[in-house]
Design brief:
5 helices, about 40% helix, globular, alpha/beta
């Protein structure tokens, strides 16, 4: 029994250490004003996670479409090749953007910012 206890303790420590960074993966929620400031002053990726028809009806200038239901390692890498890129995520009202931001963080993207929905975006849009 004395030999098993240290072994079990070691296994427990090993498993805890192997939980991976995804356990701490997160994104940051910011205001639309902060997002606009970042768009105007930084090299960023603006990610629209709505559907194609929603994007076509109006989107933030320069935004790239990646519908939330299609986000995986491959589709994200095609749009955001560098996991250290600053990514600003939005949708229509802010629900899908939160989901998408969580997925991106779990995929290892380290600078993900969610700023809600275009339905309250007070700045320029384009079709």
């Amino acid at each position: 029994m004395k030999k098993i206890l240290p072994l079990l303790f070691s296994v427990l420590l090993l498993l805890t250490g192997c939980s991976g960074d995804t356990a701490n993966a997160s994104y940051q929620q910011i205001s639309q004003e902060e997002a606009k400031e970042m768009m105007d002053t930084q090299d960023i990726v603006v990610l629209d996670v709505r559907e194609q028809d929603e994007y076509d009806s109006g989107h933030i200038p320069g935004a790239v479409l990646l519908p939330v239901g299609t986000i995986n390692e491959d589709t994200a890498a095609a749009v955001i090749p560098e996991k250290g890129s600053t990514v600003l995520v939005y949708c229509r009202s802010g629900n899908r953007s939160k989901t998408a931001s969580s997925i991106l963080a779990e995929l290892g993207y380290t600078h993900v910012y969610e700023f809600g929905g275009i339905n309250t975006w007070p700045y320029e849009t384009e079709t």
